[in-house]
Write a structure and sequence with these properties.
A: 65 residues, mainly alpha, B: two-stranded antiparallel sheet, 10 helices, 6% strand, extended
Chain lengths: 65, 360
Protein backbone atom coordinates (compact mmCIF):
# COMPACT_ATOMS: atom_id res chain seq x y z
CA UNK A 1 0.00 0.00 0.00
CA UNK A 2 2.74 2.37 0.93
CA UNK A 3 4.84 0.89 -1.85
CA UNK A 4 2.14 1.72 -4.36
CA UNK A 5 2.18 5.30 -3.17
CA UNK A 6 5.94 5.47 -3.60
CA UNK A 7 5.69 3.91 -7.04
CA UNK A 8 3.09 6.51 -7.95
CA UNK A 9 5.32 9.26 -6.61
CA UNK A 10 8.26 8.01 -8.63
CA UNK A 11 6.42 7.65 -11.89
CA UNK A 12 4.68 11.00 -11.62
CA UNK A 13 7.36 13.22 -10.11
CA UNK A 14 10.79 11.73 -9.60
CA UNK A 15 11.17 10.07 -12.95
CA UNK A 16 11.51 13.20 -15.05
CA UNK A 17 14.22 15.67 -14.12
CA UNK A 18 11.99 18.66 -14.87
CA UNK A 19 9.25 17.59 -12.50
CA UNK A 20 11.83 16.52 -9.93
CA UNK A 21 13.38 20.00 -10.02
CA UNK A 22 10.00 21.68 -9.55
CA UNK A 23 9.29 19.32 -6.66
CA UNK A 24 12.65 20.15 -5.02
CA UNK A 25 12.10 23.91 -5.29
CA UNK A 26 8.51 23.65 -4.07
CA UNK A 27 9.54 21.41 -1.19
CA UNK A 28 12.25 23.91 -0.25
CA UNK A 29 9.67 26.71 0.01
CA UNK A 30 7.33 24.60 2.07
CA UNK A 31 10.10 23.21 4.28
CA UNK A 32 11.61 26.65 4.93
CA UNK A 33 8.23 28.07 5.93
CA UNK A 34 7.53 25.11 8.18
CA UNK A 35 10.98 25.03 9.79
CA UNK A 36 11.01 28.81 10.31
CA UNK A 37 7.62 28.90 12.02
CA UNK A 38 8.41 25.69 13.91
CA UNK A 39 11.68 26.93 15.39
CA UNK A 40 10.15 30.35 16.12
CA UNK A 41 7.40 28.61 18.06
CA UNK A 42 9.98 26.49 19.93
CA UNK A 43 12.12 29.58 20.65
CA UNK A 44 9.12 31.54 21.94
CA UNK A 45 8.09 28.65 24.14
CA UNK A 46 11.58 28.26 25.61
CA UNK A 47 11.85 32.02 26.19
CA UNK A 48 8.40 32.73 27.52
CA UNK A 49 8.13 36.19 29.13
CA UNK A 50 11.78 36.96 28.41
CA UNK A 51 11.54 38.72 25.07
CA UNK A 52 10.64 42.29 24.18
CA UNK A 53 7.32 41.30 22.62
CA UNK A 54 6.23 39.81 25.94
CA UNK A 55 6.92 42.98 27.98
CA UNK A 56 6.06 45.43 25.20
CA UNK A 57 2.44 45.62 26.27
CA UNK A 58 3.45 47.06 29.61
CA UNK A 59 4.95 50.13 27.99
CA UNK A 60 3.25 50.71 24.67
CA UNK A 61 0.04 52.28 26.07
CA UNK A 62 1.93 54.55 28.40
CA UNK A 63 3.96 55.86 25.47
CA UNK A 64 0.80 56.56 23.51
CA UNK A 65 -0.76 58.56 26.32
CA UNK B 1 42.94 -22.75 -18.29
CA UNK B 2 39.97 -20.56 -18.66
CA UNK B 3 39.21 -19.79 -15.06
CA UNK B 4 37.27 -16.67 -14.58
CA UNK B 5 36.79 -14.14 -11.88
CA UNK B 6 33.56 -12.28 -12.00
CA UNK B 7 32.52 -9.36 -9.88
CA UNK B 8 28.86 -9.12 -9.28
CA UNK B 9 27.07 -6.51 -7.28
CA UNK B 10 25.26 -8.01 -4.33
CA UNK B 11 22.33 -5.80 -5.24
CA UNK B 12 21.49 -7.44 -8.60
CA UNK B 13 18.91 -10.22 -8.90
CA UNK B 14 21.37 -12.70 -10.41
CA UNK B 15 23.54 -12.76 -7.34
CA UNK B 16 20.93 -12.66 -4.66
CA UNK B 17 20.81 -16.43 -4.57
CA UNK B 18 24.24 -18.06 -4.58
CA UNK B 19 24.41 -20.83 -7.22
CA UNK B 20 24.40 -24.13 -5.33
CA UNK B 21 27.09 -25.89 -7.36
CA UNK B 22 29.71 -23.43 -6.20
CA UNK B 23 28.66 -23.47 -2.60
CA UNK B 24 31.41 -25.88 -1.56
CA UNK B 25 33.99 -24.90 -4.18
CA UNK B 26 34.11 -21.32 -2.96
CA UNK B 27 34.22 -21.47 0.83
CA UNK B 28 34.80 -17.73 1.21
CA UNK B 29 32.90 -15.72 -1.37
CA UNK B 30 34.94 -12.63 -0.79
CA UNK B 31 38.30 -14.38 -0.73
CA UNK B 32 39.59 -12.21 -3.59
CA UNK B 33 39.90 -9.29 -1.19
CA UNK B 34 41.38 -10.19 2.23
CA UNK B 35 38.94 -9.31 4.95
CA UNK B 36 39.67 -7.78 8.28
CA UNK B 37 42.72 -6.01 9.52
CA UNK B 38 44.66 -5.60 12.72
CA UNK B 39 41.52 -4.96 14.73
CA UNK B 40 39.25 -7.77 13.66
CA UNK B 41 37.99 -9.84 10.83
CA UNK B 42 34.93 -7.80 10.12
CA UNK B 43 34.06 -4.17 10.61
CA UNK B 44 31.74 -5.18 13.36
CA UNK B 45 34.52 -6.95 15.22
CA UNK B 46 36.75 -3.92 14.89
CA UNK B 47 34.01 -1.58 16.11
CA UNK B 48 33.36 -3.83 19.08
CA UNK B 49 37.06 -3.94 19.90
CA UNK B 50 37.30 -0.14 19.81
CA UNK B 51 34.19 0.25 21.91
CA UNK B 52 35.42 -2.24 24.46
CA UNK B 53 38.89 -0.69 24.67
CA UNK B 54 37.55 2.86 24.93
CA UNK B 55 35.11 2.02 27.69
CA UNK B 56 37.68 0.03 29.68
CA UNK B 57 40.22 2.87 29.33
CA UNK B 58 37.61 5.40 30.34
CA UNK B 59 36.50 3.52 33.42
CA UNK B 60 40.02 2.61 34.55
CA UNK B 61 41.26 6.14 33.88
CA UNK B 62 38.43 7.74 35.80
CA UNK B 63 38.78 5.43 38.76
CA UNK B 64 42.54 5.92 38.84
CA UNK B 65 42.43 9.69 38.69
CA UNK B 66 39.55 9.93 41.12
CA UNK B 67 40.63 7.44 43.77
CA UNK B 68 44.19 6.25 43.26
CA UNK B 69 46.05 9.44 42.42
CA UNK B 70 44.23 11.47 45.06
CA UNK B 71 45.14 9.10 47.88
CA UNK B 72 46.89 10.95 50.68
CA UNK B 73 49.49 8.20 50.95
CA UNK B 74 50.92 9.49 47.68
CA UNK B 75 51.54 12.96 49.14
CA UNK B 76 55.24 12.29 49.96
CA UNK B 77 55.77 11.19 46.35
CA UNK B 78 54.28 14.43 45.06
CA UNK B 79 56.36 16.44 47.56
CA UNK B 80 59.48 14.71 46.30
CA UNK B 81 58.61 15.40 42.66
CA UNK B 82 57.89 19.05 43.45
CA UNK B 83 61.20 19.44 45.30
CA UNK B 84 63.08 17.89 42.38
CA UNK B 85 61.32 20.27 39.99
CA UNK B 86 62.14 23.23 42.20
CA UNK B 87 65.73 22.12 42.37
CA UNK B 88 66.01 21.81 38.60
CA UNK B 89 64.28 25.17 38.13
CA UNK B 90 66.64 26.78 40.63
CA UNK B 91 69.70 25.43 38.83
CA UNK B 92 68.34 26.66 35.49
CA UNK B 93 67.79 30.10 36.96
CA UNK B 94 71.21 29.87 38.60
CA UNK B 95 72.71 29.41 35.16
CA UNK B 96 71.13 32.72 34.20
CA UNK B 97 68.19 31.45 32.12
CA UNK B 98 65.51 33.10 34.22
CA UNK B 99 62.78 32.95 31.58
CA UNK B 100 62.69 29.17 31.27
CA UNK B 101 59.93 27.65 33.40
CA UNK B 102 59.55 23.92 33.77
CA UNK B 103 56.21 22.17 33.34
CA UNK B 104 54.82 19.41 35.58
CA UNK B 105 53.26 21.31 38.45
CA UNK B 106 51.89 18.70 40.86
CA UNK B 107 49.10 20.93 42.11
CA UNK B 108 46.38 22.83 40.30
CA UNK B 109 47.18 26.52 40.12
CA UNK B 110 44.27 28.90 40.31
CA UNK B 111 46.47 31.89 39.47
CA UNK B 112 44.60 34.09 41.87
CA UNK B 113 47.56 36.12 42.88
CA UNK B 114 46.92 39.81 43.41
CA UNK B 115 48.45 40.81 40.09
CA UNK B 116 46.03 38.61 38.18
CA UNK B 117 42.98 39.55 40.20
CA UNK B 118 40.73 37.06 41.93
CA UNK B 119 39.09 34.77 39.38
CA UNK B 120 35.41 35.62 39.19
CA UNK B 121 33.11 32.67 39.98
CA UNK B 122 30.70 31.41 37.33
CA UNK B 123 27.23 32.64 38.18
CA UNK B 124 24.24 30.80 36.68
CA UNK B 125 23.24 33.46 34.17
CA UNK B 126 20.06 32.29 32.51
CA UNK B 127 21.06 33.80 29.17
CA UNK B 128 24.22 31.69 29.11
CA UNK B 129 22.18 28.65 28.19
CA UNK B 130 22.33 27.98 24.46
CA UNK B 131 18.57 28.19 23.90
CA UNK B 132 17.86 31.20 26.14
CA UNK B 133 17.48 34.83 25.07
CA UNK B 134 18.31 37.85 27.22
CA UNK B 135 15.72 38.73 29.84
CA UNK B 136 14.54 41.98 28.27
CA UNK B 137 12.94 43.18 31.49
CA UNK B 138 16.42 42.88 33.06
CA UNK B 139 17.92 44.74 30.08
CA UNK B 140 15.47 47.58 30.64
CA UNK B 141 16.33 47.75 34.33
CA UNK B 142 20.03 47.50 33.47
CA UNK B 143 19.74 50.46 31.14
CA UNK B 144 18.12 52.43 33.95
CA UNK B 145 21.01 51.57 36.29
CA UNK B 146 23.55 52.53 33.62
CA UNK B 147 21.77 55.80 32.93
CA UNK B 148 21.33 56.81 36.56
CA UNK B 149 24.58 55.55 38.06
CA UNK B 150 27.25 54.63 35.56
CA UNK B 151 26.83 57.24 32.82
CA UNK B 152 28.09 59.90 35.25
CA UNK B 153 31.61 58.66 34.52
CA UNK B 154 31.43 56.00 31.79
CA UNK B 155 30.72 56.72 28.14
CA UNK B 156 29.05 54.28 25.78
CA UNK B 157 29.89 55.87 22.47
CA UNK B 158 29.06 52.94 20.20
CA UNK B 159 25.45 52.47 21.36
CA UNK B 160 22.77 54.75 19.93
CA UNK B 161 19.34 55.43 21.41
CA UNK B 162 17.74 53.74 18.41
CA UNK B 163 19.48 50.48 19.41
CA UNK B 164 17.13 50.37 22.41
CA UNK B 165 14.02 50.34 20.25
CA UNK B 166 12.41 46.92 20.23
CA UNK B 167 14.89 45.70 22.83
CA UNK B 168 14.18 47.64 26.02
CA UNK B 169 11.93 50.58 25.04
CA UNK B 170 9.27 51.60 22.55
CA UNK B 171 10.24 54.14 19.91
CA UNK B 172 8.14 56.87 21.57
CA UNK B 173 9.98 56.24 24.84
CA UNK B 174 13.34 56.33 23.07
CA UNK B 175 12.48 59.65 21.42
CA UNK B 176 11.65 61.06 24.84
CA UNK B 177 14.84 59.69 26.41
CA UNK B 178 17.04 61.06 23.64
CA UNK B 179 15.35 64.46 23.83
CA UNK B 180 16.46 64.81 27.47
CA UNK B 181 20.03 65.30 26.31
CA UNK B 182 21.57 68.20 24.45
CA UNK B 183 23.83 67.68 21.49
CA UNK B 184 26.03 70.11 19.64
CA UNK B 185 25.31 70.08 15.92
CA UNK B 186 26.36 72.11 12.94
CA UNK B 187 27.73 74.00 11.25
CA UNK B 188 24.53 75.64 10.10
CA UNK B 189 24.25 77.83 7.00
CA UNK B 190 25.97 80.68 8.87
CA UNK B 191 28.83 78.42 9.84
CA UNK B 192 27.90 78.34 13.51
CA UNK B 193 27.52 75.37 15.81
CA UNK B 194 24.25 75.12 17.68
CA UNK B 195 22.69 72.99 20.37
CA UNK B 196 19.70 70.78 19.74
CA UNK B 197 17.84 68.11 21.70
CA UNK B 198 18.92 64.53 21.09
CA UNK B 199 17.38 62.24 18.52
CA UNK B 200 17.17 58.44 18.47
CA UNK B 201 19.96 58.37 15.89
CA UNK B 202 22.40 60.00 18.30
CA UNK B 203 24.84 57.91 20.30
CA UNK B 204 24.81 57.85 24.08
CA UNK B 205 26.35 61.05 25.43
CA UNK B 206 29.80 60.98 26.99
CA UNK B 207 30.21 62.47 30.47
CA UNK B 208 33.58 63.98 29.51
CA UNK B 209 34.60 65.63 26.23
CA UNK B 210 37.85 63.64 25.98
CA UNK B 211 40.07 61.15 27.80
CA UNK B 212 42.21 63.83 29.43
CA UNK B 213 39.19 65.46 31.04
CA UNK B 214 38.03 62.02 32.21
CA UNK B 215 41.41 61.28 33.78
CA UNK B 216 41.61 64.69 35.41
CA UNK B 217 38.21 64.20 37.02
CA UNK B 218 39.01 60.69 38.25
CA UNK B 219 42.43 60.88 39.87
CA UNK B 220 44.22 59.96 36.69
CA UNK B 221 42.19 56.80 36.08
CA UNK B 222 40.20 56.66 32.84
CA UNK B 223 36.70 55.19 33.23
CA UNK B 224 36.61 52.86 30.21
CA UNK B 225 33.91 53.04 27.57
CA UNK B 226 31.21 50.46 28.28
CA UNK B 227 30.14 49.68 24.70
CA UNK B 228 32.11 46.43 24.42
CA UNK B 229 33.28 46.03 28.01
CA UNK B 230 32.01 42.47 28.29
CA UNK B 231 33.98 41.42 25.24
CA UNK B 232 37.01 43.30 26.51
CA UNK B 233 37.25 41.63 29.92
CA UNK B 234 37.99 38.01 30.72
CA UNK B 235 35.04 36.57 32.60
CA UNK B 236 32.53 38.91 30.94
CA UNK B 237 29.40 39.31 33.03
CA UNK B 238 30.81 37.21 35.89
CA UNK B 239 33.72 39.65 36.12
CA UNK B 240 31.51 42.77 35.90
CA UNK B 241 29.14 41.46 38.57
CA UNK B 242 32.03 40.44 40.84
CA UNK B 243 33.75 43.80 40.47
CA UNK B 244 30.57 45.71 41.26
CA UNK B 245 29.69 43.64 44.32
CA UNK B 246 33.21 42.71 45.41
CA UNK B 247 34.32 45.82 47.25
CA UNK B 248 35.71 44.99 50.67
CA UNK B 249 38.36 46.09 53.12
CA UNK B 250 41.88 45.27 52.02
CA UNK B 251 43.50 42.34 53.82
CA UNK B 252 45.90 43.06 56.68
CA UNK B 253 49.11 44.62 55.48
CA UNK B 254 47.81 45.72 52.07
CA UNK B 255 47.93 49.47 51.67
CA UNK B 256 45.87 51.14 48.96
CA UNK B 257 46.94 54.65 48.15
CA UNK B 258 44.64 57.61 48.47
CA UNK B 259 42.20 57.85 45.59
CA UNK B 260 42.15 54.13 44.83
CA UNK B 261 39.90 51.46 46.33
CA UNK B 262 40.47 47.83 47.13
CA UNK B 263 38.71 45.28 44.96
CA UNK B 264 40.11 41.72 44.93
CA UNK B 265 38.68 40.98 41.48
CA UNK B 266 40.47 43.89 39.83
CA UNK B 267 43.93 42.96 38.57
CA UNK B 268 46.36 44.46 41.03
CA UNK B 269 43.64 44.96 43.63
CA UNK B 270 43.56 48.75 43.47
CA UNK B 271 40.70 50.07 41.33
CA UNK B 272 40.01 53.72 40.64
CA UNK B 273 36.24 53.35 40.84
CA UNK B 274 34.60 53.65 44.22
CA UNK B 275 31.74 51.40 45.11
CA UNK B 276 28.62 52.83 43.44
CA UNK B 277 25.94 50.19 43.79
CA UNK B 278 24.28 50.26 47.17
CA UNK B 279 20.84 49.05 48.06
CA UNK B 280 18.09 51.23 46.60
CA UNK B 281 20.22 53.78 44.76
CA UNK B 282 17.85 53.21 41.82
CA UNK B 283 14.06 52.87 41.98
CA UNK B 284 12.85 50.29 39.52
CA UNK B 285 9.63 51.24 37.74
CA UNK B 286 8.51 47.61 37.41
CA UNK B 287 8.68 47.08 41.15
CA UNK B 288 11.54 44.61 41.15
CA UNK B 289 13.62 44.48 44.34
CA UNK B 290 16.44 47.01 44.06
CA UNK B 291 19.12 45.67 46.34
CA UNK B 292 22.73 46.04 45.29
CA UNK B 293 23.14 42.57 43.82
CA UNK B 294 19.97 42.96 41.73
CA UNK B 295 21.27 46.28 40.41
CA UNK B 296 24.62 44.67 39.59
CA UNK B 297 22.95 41.70 37.92
CA UNK B 298 20.75 43.90 35.75
CA UNK B 299 23.53 46.25 34.70
CA UNK B 300 25.81 43.30 33.91
CA UNK B 301 23.09 41.83 31.70
CA UNK B 302 22.62 45.21 29.99
CA UNK B 303 26.36 45.48 29.34
CA UNK B 304 26.34 41.96 27.98
CA UNK B 305 23.63 43.01 25.51
CA UNK B 306 25.70 46.05 24.56
CA UNK B 307 28.60 43.76 23.65
CA UNK B 308 26.40 41.15 21.95
CA UNK B 309 23.35 42.89 20.47
CA UNK B 310 22.87 40.05 18.00
CA UNK B 311 22.67 37.47 20.80
CA UNK B 312 18.96 36.63 20.59
CA UNK B 313 18.87 36.43 16.79
CA UNK B 314 22.07 34.46 16.71
CA UNK B 315 20.75 31.79 19.06
CA UNK B 316 17.40 31.57 17.27
CA UNK B 317 19.17 31.13 13.96
CA UNK B 318 21.49 28.65 15.61
CA UNK B 319 18.53 26.49 16.63
CA UNK B 320 17.20 26.67 13.06
CA UNK B 321 20.50 25.75 11.51
CA UNK B 322 21.10 22.88 13.94
CA UNK B 323 17.70 21.48 13.09
CA UNK B 324 18.15 21.84 9.34
CA UNK B 325 21.72 20.54 9.43
CA UNK B 326 20.79 17.43 11.39
CA UNK B 327 18.07 16.65 8.87
CA UNK B 328 20.51 17.34 6.05
CA UNK B 329 23.25 15.20 7.56
CA UNK B 330 20.84 12.35 8.18
CA UNK B 331 19.61 12.46 4.59
CA UNK B 332 23.17 12.72 3.27
CA UNK B 333 24.34 9.70 5.24
CA UNK B 334 21.38 7.70 4.01
CA UNK B 335 21.91 8.82 0.38
CA UNK B 336 25.61 8.02 0.43
CA UNK B 337 25.07 4.60 1.93
CA UNK B 338 22.33 3.89 -0.59
CA UNK B 339 24.54 4.76 -3.55
CA UNK B 340 27.52 2.92 -2.10
CA UNK B 341 25.54 -0.21 -1.26
CA UNK B 342 26.02 -1.37 -4.83
CA UNK B 343 29.77 -1.28 -4.33
CA UNK B 344 29.88 -2.49 -0.78
CA UNK B 345 27.78 -5.58 -1.37
CA UNK B 346 29.57 -6.75 -4.47
CA UNK B 347 30.76 -10.27 -4.53
CA UNK B 348 33.78 -11.64 -6.32
CA UNK B 349 33.36 -15.17 -7.54
CA UNK B 350 36.26 -17.30 -8.67
CA UNK B 351 35.37 -20.23 -10.88
CA UNK B 352 38.14 -22.73 -11.23
CA UNK B 353 38.07 -24.19 -14.73
CA UNK B 354 38.18 -27.83 -13.68
CA UNK B 355 37.30 -29.54 -16.95
CA UNK B 356 39.46 -27.28 -19.06
CA UNK B 357 36.42 -26.13 -21.00
CA UNK B 358 35.60 -22.45 -20.91
CA UNK B 359 32.33 -21.70 -19.18
CA UNK B 360 30.59 -18.37 -19.08
Amino acid sequence: MASAFIRGLYSSIFRRTSTFTVAVIGAAFVAEAAIDSGTDAVWDYLNKDRQWKDIRSLYIEKAEE
Amino acid sequence: MFSSVSIRSGRTAACRVAPKRFASAAPNPSAATPSGGPFGETRRDAALWFAKTASVCGVVGYLTSEYVLTDERLEPVYEGIWKMRQGIQASIVGLGMTKIALPLLPEAQAFSDAAHGLHAPHYPWEHRKPWKSYDHAALRRGYQVYKEVCSACHSMKLVAFRNLIGVTHTDAEVKAIAAEYEYTDGPDENGEYFKRPGRPSDYFPSPYPNEEAARAANNGAYPPDMSCINKARHGEEDYIFSILTGYCDPPAGVKIREGLHYNPYFPGGAIGMARNLYDEVVDYEDGSPNNASQLAKDVSTFLSWASYPEHDDRKRMGLKSLFICSIGIGLSVWWKRHKWSYVKTRKVVYRPDLAGVRKV
